[in-house]
Task: structure prediction
Amino acid sequence: MLLAIVAICEIGFWVVLVCGIAARYLLRWRRLGAILLACVPLVDLILLVATVLHLRSGATADFTHGLAAAYIGFSLAFGHGLIRWADARFAYRFAAGPPPPRPPQSGRARTRHEWREFGKATLAWAISAALLLGGIVLVGDPARTAALGEWIGRLTFVLALWALWPLWYTIRPGRSGGG
Result:
């Protein structure tokens, strides 16, 4: 059941996002668009409440509980940037807005860009790990929360892999400048 809620929340994120942007640009209802875009984090709250209720009801934590924590961490750390990304593209395509900015291709600017993205990944990891640890404490039974501890290891591994990109651009920044 929790896996279905995670999937519904992922779909809900994009539905609320698209509806907010469509209201803003297609219908020219800027206030409604702003309200809908402000509601995007409510999707995370719904998932958090569902996960906590499931664990409090006596469920043994499994892969989906960890996935929910990872989704919430990613959404909170990267969600605002995803909204800005979608908004810029929609404004360009449907509202005669300026072309969306592109990430730098090389040089110091690319290195800074990669470190900023890694910073967001680190924030996502920290939020997810805090939620996972919170779930472990909430349940208070190591036998029922082993899967949550495993997720901390998975997310740490992903973060370590992610670190390779900014390190690479720091060592080899490319043609347009030094690092």
